[in-house]
Amino acid sequence: MTTSSHAHPPAEPSAGWHVVVPVKDTSHGKSRLARAVGSDRTELSAAIATDTLAAAAAAVGPDHLVLVTSDAGLAARWRTRGVHVVADPGTGLNEAVSAGMRHAGPGARVAALLGDVPSLDAASLRSALEAAAYVEESFVPDADGTGTVLRCGRGFTPRFGTDSAARHEADGAVRLDLPLPRLRTDVDDARSLARARRLGLGLATRTVLEHRASGWIRSMQATVHRFDPETHTGSVLRDDGVELRFEAPAFEASGLRLLRLGQRLTVEVVDDLVIALHIVGVGPGQPIR
Predict the structure, then answer these.
(1) What are the helix and strand counts (H, E) for the chain?
(2) pTM of the model
């Protein structure tokens, strides 16, 4: 963690923050998941936002949480819980964050948090806010290191979007590469949803997956086609010859130490991406072969 631009933190470093969470209307959210989850997209989007807001409220209290949204249902539910709700101006993510910052008031310490972090827990957010209290301006990058999940400071210009980490750093914000995967895993596609699932999801998102995911998480048998033991990436062939790739997290979560070409596996697939690997006969409900 870089330690320039020192601030004078309060006695309780995680206190005093106003957390601003912009959430797109859930009927239009998560467009990149549409192919994977189909008609369940709206329900999944609402659940992801709910889990993010629940963790933020637990971390700082509802009176220090500002929800910026045009989603009437989400706004009504969280307003009754004491959360400040601000209308989304409808001109983009950064403008929504700015609207929440104005509501927090001039000079307020603001932490702008993405609204799609369903594995987030209160402890992770508090840890990030404690670290941010020691510098004037800071941000926490996403798991890939190029985006931003949390931008902290007073009166800053939010620059969320593609390559936002570089833009926030160019503004003088200190990059906080914290070991907080539950905070740094935002979900916008099948790959990131699989990452969040491995970390552990909040109650609302977990419930959607338990009741609906059987429709879009497919389990099948396949044959190992490629495997790189250094990167832990590779691919499998379905029985109809279609090649499906898998990334390192799927292999590393499997408990397997190595794969051999031609080996038979049971795989779980979302949107043609392998998100889990099992030895045939070891997965849930499978007979040993």
Answers:
(1) 10, 12
(2) 0.76
Degrees to nearest 5, angle at CA 209 with 180 and 87: 70
Q: How far apart are CA 247 and CA 249, in angstroms?
A: 6
What is the per-residue pLDDT across 231-265, written as a single tens digit (0 to 9) for each?
A: 999 999 988 888 988 988 889 888 898 999 999 99
What single string gives the DSSP state of each residue in 153-180?
Answer: ESS-----STTHHHHHHHTTPEE---S-
Domain 218-279 has CATH 2.60.40.740: no
Gyration radius of the chain over CA positions: 20
CB-based contact 224:234 (threshold 8 Å): yes
Contact 232, 245 (CB under 8 A): no
User: What's the pLDDT score for residue 166?
Assistant: 97
Any bridge partners for residue 269, and if so which? 218, 274
257: burial class by Cβ within 10 Å (0-12, 13-18, 19+)? exposed
Domain ranges of the chain: 17-208, 218-279
Predicted pLDDT at 289: 36
Same fold, 17-208 and 218-279: no
CATH number of 17-208: 3.90.550.10
The structure tokens listed for 182 are 């539950």
Going through the chain in order, the beta strands assigned E by DSSP cover 17-23, 65-69, 84-87, 109-113, 138-141, 148-153, 174-175, 218-228, 233-238, 243-246, 264-270, 273-279
